[in-house]
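User: Show me a protein chain along with its predicted structure.
Assistant: Here is one chain, sequence first, then structure tokens.
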Amino acid sequence: MSVFADFLGDRKKIFLGQEITICKYATLEVDPSDTDRSKIIIGDRTLISSFAILRTYGGTIKIGSSSFVNSFSVLYGHGDLTIGNGCLIGPQVTIVPVNYGFQDRNIPFREQIPSLKGIVIEDDVWIGAGVTILDGCIVGKGSVIGAGAVVTKSVEPYSIVAGVPAKKIGSRE
């Protein structure tokens, strides 16, 4: 195991599998204010590249085995984030399992109740560079998310999606 990351918060809330690599300048940050829910779990043989950021913000981030999180990606945990086994996450990907409330224009965004639906990325998913995945999405097993896509709704297994917002452009047969 090679670990060069900055660990912020409670190290007892970060669970690392066997033969993982967390590269220099990666940040794993657990919210210290939520002692029950907030944690980071990283499976065996997973690599977290330099300058990747994982921040729980009161939720849980769980990454399966044999996955890869590329440089400059930001993974948040607000409403819980689950990433399966064998997933490839390209550089500069942003995954945000929260959405500010905006229904009442008389209340500032930060004071409205946010959605915390969570995000699930199933096994063997390839997420291209610069993708954004928003709250409430399930990305089905074996899917490919094209570079620069913005995923605003769930993706069926073995789909190929691209664009803003992301739309199905093919299937893996």
